[in-house]
Amino acid sequence: MIKKIRRFLESLRNEQLDFQTRLIRMVFLLVFIATVIGMGRVLIGASPIVLTALIPMCIISGASLYIAVRYNKVKLASWLLILISNGLLFPLVFMMSGGMNSGTPVWFVLGLVYIFLLFKGRELAFALLLSMASFLSAYVTAYRFPDMVPTASYRLYSFADSYVTLIVVSVFVGFLMKMQALTYDKERKLAQQQKEEIEQIARSKDTFFANMSHEIRTPINTIIGLNEMTLREDISDEIAENAINIQNASKMLLTTINDILDLSKLESGRMEIVPVQYEISALFSDLVNLIWIRASQKELEFKVDIDPNIPSMLYGDEVRIKQILTNILTNAVKYTETGSVTLSAKGERLAADEILLRISVEDTGMGIRKENLDDLFSSFKRIDETKNRNIEGTGLGLTIVKQLVDMMGGKISVDSVYHKGSVFTVEIMQHIVNVKPMGVINFAEQRKLERRTKYKQSFTAPDARILVVDDNEMNRMVAVKLLRGTKMQIDTVGSGKECLKLTADNLYHVILMDHMMPDMDGEETMKAVRAQTKGFCQKTPIIALTANVMSNAKQVYRDMGFDGYLAKPINATLLEASLLKYLPSELIEYDAKEDLTDLEEGGDINQIISVKKRKVAITADCICDLPRDLLERYQIKLMYCYVHTKEGRFCDLFEISSDSVLNYLKVEGNYAHSSTAEPSEYEYFFADMLATAQHVIHITATTDLSGAYPNALQASKSFDNVTVYDSTHISSGHGFMVLYAAELAEQGKSVQEICEALDRFKELVFSNFLVPSTEALYRNGKVSGVVHKLCDGLNLHPVLRMSQNELKLWKIEVGNMKYVQRKYVKKLLHHSKQIDKRILFLTYAGCSVRQLEEILEEVEKYVKFDKVIMQKASATVSSNCGVGVFGLMYVRNKE
Questions:
Q1: CA 730-734-738 angle, 5° bins
Q2: Which residues have CB under 8 Å from 396's CB, separation 6+?
Q3: Cα 538 to chain center, whole Å?
Q4: Which residues, listed in sequence order, are joined to residue 357 by a DSSP beta bridge?
Q5: Cα separation, 691 vs 684, whole angstroms
Q6: At what angle do helices 2-11 and 19-43 cross, to 10 degrees?
Q7: What's the CA gap between 279 and 286, in Å, rounded?
Q8: Is the CB of residue 250 less than 8 Å from the CB of residue 224?
Q9: Residues 672, 642: contact at Cβ < 8 Å?
Q10: Cis bond before residue 569 (omega within 30° of 0)
């Protein structure tokens, strides 16, 4: 018996048992002890009848403990305990020990406490109700029949009973709380340890992926780089086709590597969806060119069925969509031995500017068993492994596909018949940029065009010196050959120590640095170059050119101190673009040579010239409302905005005009509003502008009415030589600022000088509008419904002006429009001495010719301007202000 008790007590310390099991065993033990103690208390003055009842109860309590431990029947034992202790023992002890004058009420507390430890859910509620009903019956009985409750013969018994009960119950509850606290602390430490282990595993995994990627990308870099040089030569069609096939096969190998890296990003939550504007025809052309090679190698028929009515330009993450479809198409080709693979795409319009792309890939391969469909999207899981053991693959492709589709809010479905084939269908919602249908794509012709595309370097810089540092000789050779057309002076070294010897004696304008090198790695070498007190390259831009592409590589290299980052295999276009960004502008020459064939067919030989960059280029948003001749005169380039209607989203400058917007708005029920381009679109715009200028100053409209400034500012952070300036004006007032900046740039002023001059000039520009109707302003949230109804009902016409970067109410005119416009012109121009009389902009939206003539007649009564420019407002401005709005914008004298 003693041995059994010892074994039981040891089981309470057995850490192999979970906490709940040990806790329940402890509860049973303590309840059993409490039962024995309670029985002992009653024995002092109990009658033979009570003793007869207590002895079986003690036996049953012990039996419950035995059942719980021996047979693990916890639920049965728990209910036995509740019925014995709370249903019989505690109420009986209460009645036999003096009722309220004893310590038994404290035992009732104990009875309720261990219910919470033994039960949960509905059983917890039922046990509580049952116990409380039992305790209530004891209280009611003691109250109604006091003769049934014996009183203690002496006071010492009552005090001793109360004290003993208090101590026993307190120790019991305190022991449980302490046990829970210790267990919680232990679990917390275990969780923290596991968290650290998981983080260490994640870091190790990232390092492993980075190392693996580095080792594989290094030879691929050589293959792709040398193959690129072959394609640049004057070669036959057959050799060119072979080189294109090598290029595409290398891309497929890179896709496999990227799948593994992407899985790491997805698992760690670092994958992001980056939407951009893209051409749908280019996406499908790339897919067809990539998959056609593999299909033809297996003598499979590759069919393409693309709906020509899909809008030509969409907005979404083109890279991830292409990755999704590449994985599905590659799988289809891999698992199909005979027959065909079919790529189909259709579009379903969901709204004016939204379309649901439904793209399916059908194959005549082996198909998938129904019982295997659940494992289709599992990582490192391959279906029917025995049968497919000779088919290459990592088992990651569809896992990544499913997660990417989910991240884009799309859906992927699979229909498969074993031994007959499968159909994978992806549905993804995209925004429409250009509603014009893309038409029929001639993929065969595009393959010919791609094959014969001739390389042309983006710049030449004969006086520029760069240094390539890489421990791999083939990588150094590839870099030199890829940059041969730029005519730069290129030195190469194979180690960090050799690099330091050259940088100590020579000035290099850019250094391309490999990261993972023996002895001194790229980071150590970079820091040593920066620290060379007598060296010539402390401030030279250093670009990490490496095969190490961990999930957060770009930020990692920035944090290390590198100025830029390029991944291997080297993309020749990106390499030249990066060098163009960091090379001193005075060293850059742009080769504007026309193709010699074109010259032979009638071109002028004088067209072969070298063009130097402009010092500063001025750009603006299309809502600056400047005439075309001034834009061309000062070489001002404009960034588009978007106009949204029920028919879709249209690009101002290219797809929609002011007249078409106003005619559309004249139809009852039609509406329009505008939006600015995304930061990624501004980045492309700035990159194009930097091809012809050393620095770009982009002047935006006021931030009060346009989101252009924050978007352009965010995009400018990707460049060191783009400045974004908030004009604090709109329409032609914004245009005045742009013209003034362009004049200063033409005079050769620096960026700082131009911005300082603009700060002074913007206080002199006077921008204002007379609004005949507040309908458009109300629809676009510029005025409240109350103000709109008030103006409409009382024939009020607000005059708005720019003040302190906000469009504010300046005046309110009352009456018919002829009277109002005369009064407006008079108030605006009667202080003629304050006005610079060189230029007046009359900017309008939907005004008749007669109305414009009347306005000009009124203007000439007060001020004779040297030049009056009648400028039609842009589609973007028109969509926001409505029909009939016009404004007189001029510059005030400095006095």
A1: 160
A2: 259, 260, 263, 379, 380
A3: 36
A4: 347, 428
A5: 11
A6: 140
A7: 11
A8: yes
A9: no
A10: yes
804: region left, alpha or beta (phi > 0 left; psi from -120 to 50 alpha): left
318: nearest Cα among 259, 360, 353, 276: 276
Q: Produce one character per residue of 252-291: b if its CB has 16 or more CB atoms within 10 Å, e if not.
A: eebbbbbbbbbbbbbeeeebeeebebbebbbbbbbbbbbb
Check: pTM over 0.85? Answer yes or no.
no
State phi, psi for 575 to the nearest 5 degrees.
-60, -50
* Nearest in space to 638 (alpha carbons), one of 718, 698, 678: 698
Count Cβ neighbours within 10 Å for each residue of 428-438 and write b for 16 or more, e otherwise.
Answer: bbbbbbbbeeb
Helix axes 104-118, 19-43, angle to 10 degrees: 160
- CA-based radius of gyration for the chain: 41
Cα–Cα distance measured from residue 75 to residue 126, given in angstroms and rounded to the nearest whole number? 14
The number of angstroms, rounded, from the C-alpha of 167 to the middle of its chain's C-alpha atoms is 61
Place of tokens 């206080």: 763
Structure tokens at 560: 């290390």
- For residue range 290-329, list pLDDT tens digits in order: 788 778 878 899 999 999 999 988 888 888 898 899 889 9
pLDDT digits (tens, 9 = 90+) for 134-189: 889 888 888 888 878 776 555 666 676 677 777 777 777 777 777 767 777 877 88
How far is residue 118's CA from residue 133's CA, in Å, rounded to a whole number? 19
Give the pLDDT confidence of 735-785 residue by residue, as tens digits: 999 999 999 998 889 899 999 999 999 889 988 888 887 776 666 666 667
CA distance 349 to 429: 9
Written in H, E and C, the secondary structure of 516-582 is CCCCCCHHHHHHHHHHCCCCCCCCCCEEEEECCCCCCHHHHHHHHCCCEEEECCCCHHHHHHHHHHH
